[in-house]
Amino acid sequence: MTDFILCGGEVIDGSGKPPFRADVTIREGLIAAVGKCESRAGAREIDCTGKVVAPGFIDTHTHDDRALLVNPEMAMKISQGVTTVVTGNCGISLAPFVAKTAPPPPFDLLGEADDFCYPRFADYLAALDSSPPSLNAAPLVGHSTLRLAAMEALDRPASTVELAAMGEGLEEALRAGAFGLSSGLYYPPAACAPPSEIEALARLLARAGALYATHMRDEGKGVLASLDESFAVGRKAKIPVVISHHKLAGRENFGRSTQTLAHFEKAMGAQEIGLDAYPYAASSTILQEDRIGAAEKVLVTWSKSVPEAAGRELSELAREWGISLEAAAQRLKPAGAIYFMMDEADVRRILAFPQTMIGSDGLPFDSHPHPRLWGTFPRVLGHYSREVGLFSLAEAVRRMTSLPAARFGLKGRGSIGPGLFADIAVFDPSSVIDRASFDDPCRPALGIEHVFVGGRPVWSEERPTGERPGRVLRRGR
Ligand code: ZN
Ligand code: CU
Q: Looking at domain 290-338, what is its CATH homologous superfamily?
């Protein structure tokens, strides 16, 4: 294995403390030294003058379960300096489930019937082990997936027998190394699950020392009640809770992040709570008629029945077809969409909250995806830190590295220091910026110079190196 010496850069070590000048030596996949390094025979020196050397970023909220297998280069993430993705969010994980017919939305964000082919969570992890991607994966198991595997019909609470089967699925996933359970109580496959169903599963999480992440039932009018429901799961089972992609949806809720963040602060005094956010005032998921009303504008990201509609505005299509927005949505479905329905001031307030981690929520298979897929991390660094001044660069890096590593229990990652894994992002602090936009969503960011995963270079000279040193991370190991 070639050793590397990253010479003369400004180290931002992930802790939040200011940058300091140091050389970083990479040996055998680990950071061997931080300080003044002598050049050594056989080691490749990389001049990092004027650049920042930071821990690789942790994308705390992804739907990359299948992308890791079919697109192992993962250019959309390593191009941003991301070295670990947390998968299986919003209640939908690729495993454990074998589909006979096409699973209902939002499972179509992950794949089609044939893609759901892992009877056990361990089978999915084994598939990743045998065909590793460029970066690391920290998997969650989805509550909706467990429902799909255990229940005949999803429009009701689970019976005692079904709940026991879900519990077995969860325990198998935890034994295999899952970091916790995710839920998507907002979505139809889980909307009929009562809090007691989650609370029963949470007790199994407690025994394993795992966490609970949730796309809450309501991110609009009922957001405070949904926060209370989520916090109660953690409080009762004594486990950490992560509130996914925290936002306030719909004009009538604009400004209410002052309420929700105060609510977070109060609860955080008594229990372990985390949250993540993406740096945009528009959300993206499947196309649903009930979401259209709350949005100022709706952009189609993919459509099974009208593929050429991807990238176009729903209102434009409705006008062309001479029908209502709802009827146009009907015609497009199954489909995905971007919803412009947040307040920029809320986005900034949530990002600036000290406990907020960064999670892209990128949707890797959309034909015209939300730009968060390619832009999230450079946008926080370049736009929200450098241009807007929401926080220092060291603080931006902390929210992408040590904070999520501690929250998810990713041992030896998220910091720069001797003996830690050499997951590293080298970037130019004066030029780093996202270029992906709502019109042109797949443009790689600028200013991410070198990315290392486990000491191997995966991104350099604005392209993937083709190396695939990524590992499946397993809880407690
Ligand atoms: Zn979600
Ligand atoms: Cu999500």
A: D-aminoacylase. Domain 3 (3.30.1490.130)
Question: Which CATH superfamily groups domain 57-281+342-370?
Answer: Metal-dependent hydrolases (3.20.20.140)
Q: Token pair for residue 124? A: 């999915």
Residue-wise pLDDT tens digits, 232-283: 999 999 999 999 999 999 999 999 999 999 999 999 999 999 999 999 999 9
Instruction: Find the ligand nearest to 190 CA.
Output: 1
Euclidean distance between CA atoms 449 and 175, whole angstroms: 38
CA 244 to centroid of ligand 1, rounded, Å = 7
Closest CA to 378 of 425, 322, 315, 417: 425
Structural domain boundaries in the chain? 57-281+342-370, 290-338
Nearest ligand to the CA atom of 363: 2
Query: Residue ranges of the alpha helices (H) in 187-313?
Result: 188-191, 195-208, 223-237, 257-268, 289-292
Radius of gyration of the chain from its Cα atoms, rounded to whole angstroms:
22
Centre of ligand 2 to C-alpha 319, Å, is: 30
CB–CB of 357/403 below 8 Å?
A: yes
